[in-house]
Amino acid sequence: PGDAAIVGLDHLSKSTDILISGINQGANIGFDLSISGTVGAALQGYFRGITSLAISYAMTPQTEVDWETAEHIASIICGKALSEEIPKKSFLNINIPLVAIGEIAGLVVTRAEETGYFQLEDAKNNTSKLKRKTLGEPKPIPQTGTDLWALSQKYVSICPIQINLTDYRKMDALGKVLNENWKEKEI
């Protein structure tokens, strides 16, 4: 998806006001953001200074889906982005709960849940499919204010994203440890 967004932005369009990636089938929350094609495509717009929306619908492949809720919510948010009610150059990860439009509790700005990461494991009886299992500490109750919490409460989660992977908390300590006695040692 990221490559397709690059081709579209750099070769097919002279100017782009907004990049919309999705509507993805399945939520993209927590640590899943790092492996999401939907988020990756929106990221390419963000890198180019374009308001970018990654939109996902919290469903499973087995779910029979009525797209009306997702389409309605996506159209509202896209309209606000196009009319510049949403700040320009925003990068939003939007997750819509799998409920009827009348059951939506509202829209809430969230942070990404610190969920466990996933690992693929071989399917024993069917080599054409892989299963995912969650690793790390399970979170039986999502933290209030997170994307996972919002979906569990029937809210649309809107998580503003920024991309800077630098861990500033560790910079001073690492600098001290790695440069200690540097002049006295051979490389």
Automatic annotation (TrEMBL):
<dbReference type="Pfam" id="PF01975">
    <property type="entry name" value="SurE"/>
</dbReference>
<dbReference type="InterPro" id="IPR002828">
    <property type="entry name" value="SurE-like_Pase/nucleotidase"/>
</dbReference>
<dbReference type="GO" id="GO:0008252">
    <property type="term" value="F:nucleotidase activity"/>
</dbReference>
<dbReference type="InterPro" id="IPR030048">
    <property type="entry name" value="SurE"/>
</dbReference>
<keyword id="KW-0479">Metal-binding</keyword>
<dbReference type="InterPro" id="IPR036523">
    <property type="entry name" value="SurE-like_sf"/>
</dbReference>
<feature type="domain" description="Survival protein SurE-like phosphatase/nucleotidase">
    <location>
        <begin position="1"/>
        <end position="115"/>
    </location>
</feature>
<dbReference type="GO" id="GO:0046872">
    <property type="term" value="F:metal ion binding"/>
</dbReference>
<keyword id="KW-0378">Hydrolase</keyword>
<protein>
    <recommendedName>
        <fullName>Survival protein SurE-like phosphatase/nucleotidase domain-containing protein</fullName>
    </recommendedName>
</protein>
<comment type="similarity">
    <text>Belongs to the SurE nucleotidase family.</text>
</comment>
